[in-house]
């Protein structure tokens, strides 16, 4: 389900923020989220059990939600406002006060402390937050005197593009390696510049909210009084959790910064389930989703191959999307026979295994340029939002296209520990986003200082795969031959795209690194996000009541009218739903939010 947040007031008098989060599956008309007799809504926010509005509706006092003036608050946790709750991710996104160094009279050092979650069942989520520093200098996140993560910036002729990309000039961002109960932030070496005295601000922020909000306004958080932060919620045996259909909960481990592991109870979220697995009667199973064209296989080994990709003749949209299945492994024969690791219809990405390129064979110690894959005339691009640039070594690594530096980061190698490399925030390892979608790139590595002869490795990598691997201590070994990378796939008029139920596809305009634009088609599933295939005319999953949530279309057609679905666009161009309109019967018009929020490298919709 796509949550459309209510307006959140910040300190700037005219700044209101609407945040979109893709957190849970879309709810049908009769979806069950709360306990019997309890309300599951407070304003526009869904409140699923184990949370509840009133004591008898929640699993314990920490999960009680107060609903005041259609705004939900966690009464036991500093009365923080609730922005959204995800049953699947086991997170609650709250609005937390923003902390900055602006009131601090001391120029070169400042330490600020977060809200302490020690007594609560909540932790700061490592998977759904990131650490951001907007300013000039160095920002470190600390826990009990230890550095958890951090990043540094320069302020050399900072442009709007620099702040927007946030990869080291005036702004930097990095992941957090562990779940935390509290933290402090240390700002040092601040270079006071500009009319505001160089006010810097470092904060933990919900990653999805931050990235999506900055698409419309890169300065939207600059003067904000509150920041959206995602908290992991945990359950214990004392909570007496019984999952839907009387299934037993699993016991996943939560890795804390001090090296200890904490158990939590989790009811497994079935991808095809539309209800709440934390209620004994909260599950429902849906029809089998269709992903491939009729008569075509949608599986190669453990990998789902949805159309427009396809295995076999007449199963793909064009030759670039043909997949060969050899020994239960899928490959793209038209694209250097790269192995396919996964295809995502919502993100328009295909994750492939690409050869890793290093400078280890290079005899020149202080400078080396290595080439990446050139996607040339293919319909693929290196995805901006689903990859990041990583350098493991000592020195500076830059990603370059046509002699222009796209992004870069630097490392030091003074007393490098395994924790330093694992956290990857500047000692022995650094990481940064890429500013645009790319067709090709090269990597330049300079000033290597390694004891093993200057061997370093810089690479583009799928962000989710990299972070998950490192969090499991399965971080990419320096001798690994292949790296997972996400490619954005595009479709054009010649592909003759017809979306499910005959819906017209959306045209997205992609922002390419050389300043040119590329149009592509996108289909979206109006009915059930994440299930079925909107690129097949019969691929949308129709839940009972979904196509016509209140029966208005049926009544319209019974009176001889025609019911049509039109896109509803948000102010920044994102599609967040459809409007059901009855033609031929002026009494009936229904607007229903049933949409998808998605991030590519686009900046506008073509009209």
Automatic annotation (TrEMBL):
Domain Wall-associated receptor kinase galacturonan-binding: residue ranges: 38-95, 296-353
InterPro entries associated with the record: WAK, WAK_GUB
Pfam annotation, one family: GUB_WAK_bind
Gene Ontology molecular function terms on file: polysaccharide binding; protein serine/threonine kinase activity
Domain Wall-associated receptor kinase: 165-236, 423-495
Key words of the record: Disulfide bond, Glycoprotein, Kinase, Receptor, Serine/threonine-protein kinase, Signal, Transferase
Residues in the signal sequence: 1-31
GO cellular component: membrane
Cellular localisation: Membrane
Keyword Glycoprotein part of the UniProt annotation: yes
Membrane topology, as annotated: Single-pass type I membrane protein
Protein name: Wall-associated receptor kinase
């Amino acid at each position: 389900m796509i949550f459309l947040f209510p307006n959140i007031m910040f300190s700037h008098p005219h700044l209101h923020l609407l945040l979109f989060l893709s957190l849970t599956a879309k709810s049908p008309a009769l979806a069950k989220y709360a306990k019997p007799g309890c309300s599951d809504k407070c304003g526009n926010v869904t409140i699923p059990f184990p949370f509840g509005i009133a004591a008898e509706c929640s699993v314990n006092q920490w999960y009680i939600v107060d609903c005041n003036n259609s705004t939900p608050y966690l009464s036991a946790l500093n009365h923080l406002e609730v922005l959204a709750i995800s049953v699947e991710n086991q997170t609650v996104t709250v609005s937390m006060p923003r902390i900055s160094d602006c009131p601090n009279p001391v120029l070169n050092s400042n330490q600020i402390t977060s809200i302490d979650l020690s007594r609560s069942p909540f932790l700061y989520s490592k998977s759904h937050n990131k650490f951001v520093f907007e300013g000039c200098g160095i920002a470190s996140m600390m826990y009990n005197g230890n550095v958890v993560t951090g990043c540094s910036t320069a302020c050399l002729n900072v442009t709007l593009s620099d702040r927007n990309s946030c990869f080291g000039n005036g702004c930097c961002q990095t992941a957090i390696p562990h779940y935390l109960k509290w933290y402090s932030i240390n700002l040092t070496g601040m270079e006071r510049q500009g009319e505001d005295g160089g006010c810097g601000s470092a904060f933990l922020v919900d990653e999805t909210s931050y990235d999506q909000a900055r698409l419309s306004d890169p300065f939207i958080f600059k003067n904000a009084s509150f920041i959206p932060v995602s908290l992991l919620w945990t359950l214990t045996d004392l909570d007496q959790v019984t999952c839907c259909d009387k299934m037993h909960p699993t016991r996943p481990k939560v890795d804390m910064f001090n090296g200890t592991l904490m158990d939590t109870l989790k009811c497994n979220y079935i991808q095809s389930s539309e209800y709440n697995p934390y209620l004994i009667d909260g599950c429902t199973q849906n029809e089998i989703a269709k992903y491939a064209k009729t008569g075509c296989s949608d599986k190669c080994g453990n990998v789902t191959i949805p159309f427009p990709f396809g295995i076999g003749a007449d199963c793909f949209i064009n030759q670039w999307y043909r997949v060969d299945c050899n020994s239960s492994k899928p490959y793209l024969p038209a694209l250097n026979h790269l192995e396919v690791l996964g295809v995502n219809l919502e993100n328009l990405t295909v994750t492939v295994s690409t050869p890793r390129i290093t400078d280890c064979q290079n005899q020149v110690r202080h400078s080396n340029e290595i080439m990446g894959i050139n996607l040339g005339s293919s319909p693929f691009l290196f995805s901006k939002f689903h990859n990041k640039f990583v350098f493991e070594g000592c020195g500076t690594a830059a990603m370059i296209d046509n002699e222009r530096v796209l992004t870069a980061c630097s490392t030091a190698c003074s007393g490098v520990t395994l924790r330093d490399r694992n956290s990857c925030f500047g000692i022995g390892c650094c990481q940064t986003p890429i500013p645009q979608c790319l067709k090709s790139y090269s990597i330049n590595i300079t000033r290597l200082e390694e004891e093993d002869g200057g061997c370093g490795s810089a690479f583009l990598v799928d962000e989710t795969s990299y972070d998950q691997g490192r969090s499991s201590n399965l971080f990419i070994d320096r001798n690994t031959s292949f790296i997972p990378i996400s490619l954005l796939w595009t479709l054009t008029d010649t592909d003759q795209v017809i979306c499910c139920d005959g819906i017209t596809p959306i045209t997205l305009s992609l922002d390419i690194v050389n300043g040119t634009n590329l149009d592509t088609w996108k289909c979206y599933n109006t009915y059930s996000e994440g299930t079925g295939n909107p690129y097949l005319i019969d691929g949308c999953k129709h839940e009972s009541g979904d196509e016509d949530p209140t029966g208005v279309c049926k009544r319209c057609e019974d009176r001889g009218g025609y019911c049509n679905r039109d896109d509803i666009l948000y102010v920044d161009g994102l599609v967040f739903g459809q409007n059901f309109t009855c033609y031929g019967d002026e009494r009936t018009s229904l607007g229903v939010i049933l949409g998808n929020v998605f991030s590519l490298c686009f900046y506008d919709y073509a009209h």
